[in-house]
Amino acid sequence: MPAYTFKVMEQMKQIQNEIKQYVSRRQEFFEYNSVYHKYQLVKEKKSIFFVLGNHELSQFDTAQIAYAEYKKRLEPLGITVLCNECVNYFGFNIIGGVGFAQYNDQYNATTLIGPKNMMLEGRKYNTHSLEIQESQIFKNKYLEALDRAKLEKKRLLVLTHYPVEDWLGTEERDSSCVYFSGHTHRNYLSINSKEYIYADNQIGYKSVNFCLKRARLGFCKNPFMQYQDGYYEITIEKYCDFCMFSGEPIQGVTVLNKNLINAKLYMMKYCGYYGFFIISERNTKICVGGKVKNINKIKNLNDLYACFQNVLVMYIRILAPYRTLQEKIAREIKEISKMGVNTWGIEGKIHGCIIDVDYYHHIMVNPLDGKITFYYSQTWGQVQTFKNYFSLLEHINGGLPEKQKRLLLEKQKQELTTKDMLISVENINESPEVKHIQLRNSVYSYSYTIKQLQRLFDSNILREWNSQWENEAFIANGMIIDEFEKMFK
């Protein structure tokens, strides 16, 4: 076993000991109140479920040998190791396994570590048929577990190391499931009416610490859906519920609690848009997730609500044309990605001034002049730019076998010629080599601000403030670009 596995096991032992003490201290309370089923709920919290990843498998000749060894080592500790197996746990069904990457043409056993037989096949023959077989085994078990869960009217928790798209492909995620995964070392969270995917607790290679996060398994709803336009005093719990509904759960409320000493938390709603403010005798702050930002000293709620409307409308009017352009590009990326580019499910994701093609290939849209840049970047501040989107696709497909790459590029080229936005744009500053850029003097410098403002379109939340607009209800169309430029000066 890899050395770090033993360290994780020791930490798991400590976690279990703490839970046992937790149960023991409360046992008399539950017995006194004769609430046996609640006592069982607390007692069951000591259960730990474990799935293997490709690194854990790398010391073994086959995945099956690894499964047996980890079960032998971990199950005596009370840890349930799931290897393509489904179990029932407190009203839920849980299916777990490695998952593997039968649908990932780039990051699979031909390029990543794993069981020795898969690595040998991948390196020697440039194929991953053994991995595909193992991945299909898990997929079949998942489909069986899903049918059973629906028949029993239970929620199905799906625990895998590899991301969902690697073992399920383009098949629709089921809304009755909650998916947990890791592997990519990049946090990802998707909570909406169609899917529940938690991949937001990834540790990476260098970190020596890890923590356990909580995930809500029930249906998330907007706690303010029925509220009329206006302002309302609310609790932190309701604010956290709203953030969960919006797909950005707050990991801690320490900052909020500290700022709420001698202060109150308010929600303001206007035409389906929301803002959250902490008002004290000293000042008013806007909530930015689990953080806060000073904005002004307006204490009168009517006055603040009027300012909220003005600032909200100004931001939307200024950002709407830019957002429309980004969304058009994102749609075209998603259409072309169906032609075979495997991007681990993030294709077309908009964050700040950047639109992801995959984790390392991106498109940046300059909000000031509309210039579009196609580039590759593995490290923050280092970029390699390309002349056009087709050149970027060639770079993405570079790791594929020559015949497959040629056929794929031809299909993508045919699809690309129908896309107005991507086919019509070329970057005159193409750079074949990776170059360092000055972050302070680049679009990166204000991409973070844009990202905060984009919550207006992603979640209908205002998280930025411009005090100059507090008393301006309208703006002439000719002034919009000027105001856009002022935002970043």
Overview features:
alpha+beta; 6-stranded antiparallel sheet; 489 residues; 6-stranded mixed sheet; 40% helix
What count of domains describes the coordinates?
A: 2
Treating each run of at least 4 consecutive H or I residues as one helix, how many helices? 16
Instruction: Return the average pLDDT rounded to an integer.
Output: 79
Task: List how many beta strands DSSP finds.
Answer: 19
Largest sheet: 6 strands, mixed
Give unreliable regions as ranges: 16-45, 341-345, 473-481
What is the percentage of strand-forming residues? 15-25%
Distance between the termini: 54 Å
Radius of gyration: 25 Å
What strand order characterises the main sheet?
Answer: 3-4-5-6-8-7
Structural class: alpha+beta
Q: What is the helix content?
A: 40-55%
Shape: globular
Structural account:
With 489 residues, the chain is of the alpha+beta class. It folds into two domains: 153 residues, no CATH class; 190 residues, no CATH class. Helix content is 40%, strand content 18%. The protein contains 16 helices and 19 strands. The chain is globular and about 70 Å long. The termini are far apart. About 9% of the residues have low confidence.
